[in-house]
Every structure is written in structure tokens, then in C-alpha cells.
Amino acid sequence: QVLLVESGGGLVQAGGSLRLSCAASGRTFSSLRMGWFRQAPGKERELVIGISWSGRSTSYVDSVKGRFTISRDNAKNMVYLQMNSLKFEDTAVYYCAAAERVGPYEYWGQGTQVTVSS
Fold first, then answer.
1. Please, are residues 17 and 84 in contact by the beta-carbon 8 Å criterion?
2. CB neighbours (10 Å) of residue 82?
3. Which residues partner with 116 through β-bridges?
4. What is the Cα–Cα distance from 81 to 114, expressed in whole angstroms?
5. Which of 51, 60, 91, 113 has the greatest number of beta carbons closer than 10 A?
6. Three-state DSSP class for 89?
7. DSSP output for 30-51
8. Cα–Cα distance list, 55 to 43, 44, 85, 111 (Å)
9. What does the alpha-carbon distance between residue 96 and residue 40 come to, in Å, rounded to a whole number?
10. Are strands 68-73 and 46-51 parallel, antiparallel or unpaired?
């Protein structure tokens, strides 16, 4: 079992920045793939950005390209989401998620609200 706890959400003006953090416990963190999902009202949850267990590989949706960055610190069991140039449409609940090296994301945090005012 993996416990994930997000922090760092809040209200920010369009064009601003936020940094989300996710603390993981319960498993060998360095063996897990990590990702950030988001879910806006009335929309399905989507994978925004992910990072491999080693941190050497990342992937993201086109809508956040050049604005969002994911990073991890395996020594601290932490993963981060740096969000810059935020847009109104980035408003959503953001979830930290973990997966084994192969397979679907199966561990989830409780979510943190990010609200971008236009």
C-alpha cells in the first residue's frame, strides 16, 4: 500500500505560479512511477504529467507543455509539480498518483484544489 499526501494548492491569478508537493510513504518510492492528474468540474480525470521511477523520463499533455514541470526526490519520497503561467482552464482538483513500473496508476492522494482566477 502507498499513502500519498498532496499539499500546495490554492488560489492564484492567471499568469501566476504554484508548486504542488506530494509526500509518499508505505513502499519503496524509487520503484514507483509518479504522476499528477487533475479533474475539473464536469470533466473526467486526466493525466497531466508523469515521471518515471528514475526521474529520467517525463511525459505530459500538450496543454501544459512549457508551463508545468514534474520532478521527484527519491531520497525524500517526494514528487513535485511546478506550474507556471497558469490559466483559468487549469482550475481543477489535482491528484498525486503512483503506479508500479508497469501497469495502471493505482494509488491516489486525496487531491488538492487549484483555482486560477481570470
1. yes
2. 15
3. 12
4. 12
5. 51
6. helix
7. GG-EEEEEEE-TTS--EEEEEE
8. 29, 27, 23, 22
9. 15
10. unpaired
